[in-house]
Each structure stands twice: as structure tokens, then as C-alpha cells.
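Request: Have a read of the protein record below and say how the chain folds.
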Amino acid sequence: MALNLRQRQTECIARMLNLNQPVNATGMANEEVYKMLIYDKYCQNILSPLIHVKDLRKHGVTLYYLIDKERNPVPDVPAVYFVQPTHANIQRIIADTSNLLYDSFHLNFSSVIPRPLLEELASGAVNSDSIHRISKVHDQYLEFVTLEDNLFSLAQKSSYVQLNDPSAGDREIEEIIEKIVSGLFCVLATLAVVPIIRCPRGGPAEMVASALDQRLRDHLLSKNNLFTEGGNFVSSFQRPILCLFDRNFELAVGIQHDFRYQPLVHDVLGLRLNRLDIQGEKGGMKSYELDSSDPFWAANWSLAFPEVAGEIESQLAKYKKDVDEVNRRTGGTDGTEFDGTDVIGNTKHLMSAVNSLPELTARKQVIDKHTNIATVLLGEIKARSLDAFANKEYDMMARGGIDQKELLAALKGKGTQMDKLRFAIMYLISSETINQAEVELVEAALRECEVDARAFQYVKKIKSLNVSLASANSASRSNIVDWAEKLYGQSISAVTAGVKNLLSSDRQLALTRTVEALMEGKPNPEVDSYLMFDPRAPKPSLGSNHLKGPFKEAIVFMVGGGNYVEYGSLQELVQRQQPVRHVIYGTTEILTGGEFVEQLALLGQKMGLGGAPVAAPTQ
């Protein structure tokens, strides 16, 4: 049985909603209790992709509210709280218990509640004489958002900026690393696995790997730890591998335009928490859910947009054919949609038609949904020439450059300011050397379009530093390295001139190739220098070459922001491998190309580079 993060997190939430009592095979408690659910914004985002209103009703939740909203007392009903362990939430819980809002309080924190906050809660409850109303306090280890069976995000905003901020001190960096480690620990605790950890040397990935290794070691020392019971892989011979990377490992993927369905929907239409709001055919906004419950989405999310459009046409033709068949058998009129009104004929055909009506209706709703989404996407693609940007960027990465006329024509043609800025940055990353005259022409074209070029200037600065490093003699090089590493972390070595390695001839991402090599567990020059940590080993195994592959299960985590392009590439890897393997992809936050460029722009601003002022990335 493969690791299924979505299923495991949903099971944990079901148990929590049933007052942390054991649930039966149907996911229900043996005794039904009606209750309230109180959550904060972060935990609402955890619940949103997993639990629908009908599921809450099934678990006896009659009312649900955000913790910071004013609420009326419901004195005879227990309340389940699901919140982050923060000072503000603790104060609100103390106020709620003091005001006797509910009969009893079942407190569930998304991660481990620190000792000072626990003491604050106990002190407040004692002082208000309401401690008897607090039934239980649980650390749930659920501080991550699962979007699909194999996809999760820690929903930690602007981590790339925080980790690459030249003004950030050691303490700030340590706090960010600890926050990431805490989120990853929650994921591993939910899956009940202790993986082998691999990562490149240097930068945030190694910092996270080292801290996570120590956190797991410390936890495993306790007798009743989270990994001694449950979980299908604890006693298994095969443990998963956790591959940690930093966004700078493959900067271009966070910026490029992509022409596949899921990345397009996310980048262009703003897919968030598996939900989408777009303009309806007859005006007004339409809200859609895109997850595994949608059969068309489940089957076609990874296809290129033209293939998706063709599949919609095919599904629509099949639907019309089936409707015609039902109408023919029941004496209806060919070509008209079957709505249950025009039914005559024998009873057998009538019953068959009635039975097929719900399935036909559901199919039509799915077809209509994706027709609407595809129509809006097509409008954006034509208006912004997104197909041209995607193809040109791929060609640039494959060839290591682009014809100057073609480059300038794209920057002066269709597209938003952000489209052009992303394209210009992709040109910069793909070029093996910096042609100063050509770069000046690009900058002039960006100014002409009134584009804020701070992100471009930031990447150019890193690129020029990298060229300096490559040409510096060994005596002066060490000084530059010391300064650059302090200022940029791993970024200097990441945006290297050898970017042709980012995409191989079969359009496979460097991330995917590297994960494949790590899962093989065989000697490979691409990954031989990678560090290995084994939290179950008796002593630190830093840099050990003792490989334990091949691995059937992998968790791939991108520090500093990930995207649906990488997720799709890893799932394609799984589909073509024999024997079958399994890969879960996670990241600090899932970003569109535009959102990531906003973070690059903020770093450019912090370095005092040219361009208009930049607002902090929106939350």
C-alpha cells in the first residue's frame, strides 16, 4: 500500500471531529455527539480541501465558526477547537471558557503547543474558574495543507524572501528553518514514517535536513514516540526517502510559463485550495472545485491545453451520442437532451432511461464546467500569447539562448507586464554568458512597457556575481565566496552558467532527474555528493555513502516555494517507472510564476536595485 497523505490527514481530522474517540470503518464514531467546530484561518485552509459541509454534518458538527468572530453561547453543546498554538488563539480560548460559551472544550492544536503557551492556557483557565470545562488538549501534528493524495504545502508565506534576504540575521534564518522543520515533522508524524534524508550540500536544504534529522533523533529517544505504533511502514523493510531541495536548485521552473492544464489553471486563473472562481457564460462569477472527485480533472490535469480542449470535444460528442441513444430507445427526439419529460415506450426502456438520467446529468455538469474553464483560458492565451511565451522559454532553455530579434519582438508584443518580465528573466537565466549590449536592449524594452525591473536586476546581479566567481583567481575567489555565501546563501551557485542541465532533451526537469537518481540509490555523479541523514542510525550519518536503495517511496520537498509544474513532472516520472514507485511532492508554499517573481522583486528592492517600489507579496 502506497503512502497516501490525503487519506491519513483526513482520518486524523475525522478522529478529531469525533472528540478524539476511535472511529469505525466508515470513519464515524460509535456514539454520535452533536458539537460545534471553532477554527482559525490557517486551520480552515487545512480543512477546506479535505472536508466538505456534508462531511461536517456526518461527524455531528452542527455549527462552525472562525475563532476571531463574535459568537453567542451554546451552553449545552461541546466545542471542538482546531487552531494554531499562538498567543492570540490562547487568549481567545481563555475568554471563551471564562464566558461559558460551550458545555465543554476539546482543544486541538495544529502542531505542538509550546510550554509557555500551555502554562498561559492553564493559568487563564484556573483564574477564571473554568478549567473543569476543558476536556482534553491534543497536539494533532496537522500543520500542513494536503491538496491531493501526493501534494502538500506548509502554507508558509514568502519563505524564499526570508531565506535569501541579505539583511536577515542568523536568528531570523534559524526561526524560518525551525518553522519548516516543524511542518515537515507534522507530515512525517501523520504518515508515521521515519525516512532516509538526502539533500545537496550547502544552503537552506542542508539546514532543514540537519535540523529535521536532529528533531527526529530527539523524538525517537522517547519510549512512546509517534513512530512506534500505527503506520504501515514502521515495521516495513523498506523506508521512504525524503529528498530536500532549495528553490535556487532550479530557479527557472518557478518563473517559466507552462502550457499544461493544471499549471495553466493555477497560473492564469488563480487555483487556490483546489477552488477556482471565474466569469460564468451568462455573467456573474462561477465557483468550481477541481480535485480527484472530478473525473475529467483526475484524468486530464497533466495534459497540454490543446489535448484538454480535444478531450472536452470528445466527451461532449460521447455525451450527445448517449443522450440520442436513450431518446431513441424511449421514443424521444434525436439530438435533444434527455430531461425525463419525453419518455414513452415500454417499461423496461423507461426504467433504463430513468436510471441513466443522474449519470448523464452529472457528466453534463462536468463537461459544462471544463468547457467554461477552457473558454476563459483560451481567451487569456490569445490575449497574452501564452503559448508563444511557453514555447520560446522552452527553446531558450534547451538551446542556451534566443535570437535577438525574436527576443525583442516578444517583449514588445502581446502579454501583461508580468508575462514580459518573466520572459526577460528566463532569457537571463538561459544565457550561458551575459551579453551586456543585449541585456541593455532588454532593459530598454522593459522600460518602454513600464515594467518594474527589480526582479530582473536581482537575477542579473546574481548572474554577474556567478560570472565573477567563475573567472576569479583562487586567491581572491575565497573572499568573494565568503561574502556571496553570507549575502545570498546558496543562490550564487544555483543560478549557474550551466543551465542547459536544467532541461534535458526529453523535457525532463533537473529536479525529476535528480529524484530518479536518488530513488535508484546507485552510484551516480549527479548525486554522489549529496548528504545523507538517517535519524534511526545510532550515530549521525552525515555524508555517508552507504546507500539503501532502490526506494519505492519518496517525499520530495522544495524549500522556498514550489509549483504545479514540478508536481506534474514528478507524477509523470512515477507513471513511466517499472516497478511502480510513489512520489509525494511538498513545498513551503505553492506559487504562480508571477507570485515568485514578486518575491524576487522584493529581494531586488532590499538590495537597492533600480525600478519602482515593490509592495510585499500579497498574503
In short: The first strand starts at residue 35 and ends at 39.
